Amino acid sequence: MLYCWRISLLLITSNPALLALLTKLITKRLFKSPFKVKLKYYKGMKDENISEVKLVDLHSHTTASDGQLTPSELIERAISKGVQVFAITDHDTTDGLAEAHQYNNNHETPLELINGVEISTRWNSFDIHIVALNIDIENQTMVDFLSHQRELRATRAFEIGERLAKAGIEGAYEGAKFYAGDAAISRGHYARWLAEKGYATTTANVFKKYLARGKTGYAPNNWGDMASAIDIIHQAGGVAVLAHPSGYKLSAKWLKRLVREFKEAGGDAIEVVLGQQTIEDRNNLIALTVLNNLMCSLGSDFHFPGSWIELGKNMFQPQGVNWVWQSDKWKEAQ
After folding, report:
1. Which domain of life, per UniProt (predicted)?
2. Does the pLDDT at position 5 exceed 50?
3. pTM, whole model, 2 decimals?
4. Which of 5, 35, 167, 292 is 20 to 30 Å from 181 at the Cα level?
């Protein structure tokens, strides 16, 4: 038997065509992509020279939601980082945009500021966020919808505080409210207070210990479905973008399903370039846009200054990609 194996290996290695075929079959079997797309096409794509294209960042937050910079401070920082096309996308509110536009218009080197909002939805028990870009913030349907979203946030925030209090963590609601100021209280505000009080070393660890699904301080929400949110975005003249798809920690099967159903619900684009991600993740997300005939967007999801996430940082623009800001739909919205 051993002799036969040696003869077989000798025949294969001495025949270049046969060896190439075997290598191809093994490689295809061992390194099969979870997506039904040949990703080698995208692996060969090159990033645009950043000096030859506009620096774009279409996902950020201010103190109007769970960010730590005021709208004016955020605009100043974006300009200082060289961002040229910029969107503020606070959670379920557009309250920070008036101040942002005023500051930007009075700046010596203003950027192109896009009206945006990040809308919370529910899909198969997952919290899914949809970034609305180029919206009319005075559209009454959108105004009424965001007002309802704020009410849902208030109810959930109070319930989180009650759950933490029952677990022996008193004063959490008041602490989160202090950090929120005039904004709706979010889990991010709870995380800041809990980290400040020493319940965890970082806000990220707070989420893992107290605020993630199944933990002491987690409270379910009553967000609407994706299709309803997308319809309202379109009524407001905007473009609907699936935010940070790989951030939901879904399996490849579920991620493909999410993107497919987002498209079926009327979605326009997905974020394929994030503040921190692997090249493989970026390639997979681009592949999903091709599979589902969706446009591509990008954004840092900036909340506060730090070395991990920064405005405009790693906002690569691979060549040959159908970018949302270059589309006819984007131009129509403007």
Report:
1. Bacteria
2. no
3. 0.83
4. 167
